[in-house]
Amino acid sequence: MTTRTVMQEADIARALTRISHEILESNRGADDLVVLGIPTRGVALANRIAGLLGEFAGTTVPTGALDVTMYRDDLHRHPTRAPQPTQIPPAGIDGKTVVLVDDVLFSGRSIRAALDALQDIGRPDAVRLAILIDRGHRELPIRPDFVGKNLPSARDERVNVRLAEVDGLEEVTIES
Q: Cβ contacts of residue 64 below 8 Å, gap of 6+?
């Protein structure tokens, strides 16, 4: 097995800064934004993006977590993990622009599950998708609005995102 590092701490920071600026430009500011991360690493990324948005816009951007475990349609193929808490900001998501954040976009099934989960919580005006790594191989017609890095990969390769909040180090690697 070969492992190569494709992003280091500074690369991840740059990507998140660029994504945050793109979100503000697309939304014309931070008004009515809510940033929701998909556990586990999507939550850490969402918190970082919300912090950057707040810093750049001079306001606080509500953030939270959206667990999609029980909404997945592929639970029979993948070992289940314990559901994580869903945490929605007190003002909710109705009438807001929700930015979903995840670490890696692969088949699109996690995002489809997230869209189903959002329907049970409220009715946002718009949903946008921010992804640190887009590796291709989509099985569903889902496309991210904001991408940190496009990383074409083979189906049998594994992309690993490690973040300080979860793993104690910062890197993106690809194993073949």
A: 34, 35, 36, 37, 46, 86, 87, 88, 89
pTM > 0.90: yes or no: yes
Please determine, for residue 79, whether its predicted confidence score (pLDDT) is greater than 90: no
Residue 77 lies in a domain: no
Residue 169, domain CATH: 3.40.50.2020
pLDDT tens digit string along 126-145?
A: 999 999 999 999 999 999 99
CA–CA distance, 96 with 123 (Å, rounded to integer)? 8
Q: Which tokens hold the place of 134?
A: 């887009």
* pLDDT for residue 80: 62
Predicted confidence at residue 83, as pLDDT, reads 77
- The answer to whether position 79 is within a domain reads no
| Cα–Cα distance, 8 to 34 (Å, whole number) | 27
- Does 55 map to a domain? yes
Phi, psi of 98 (to 5 degrees): -95, 125
Residue 88 lies in a domain: yes
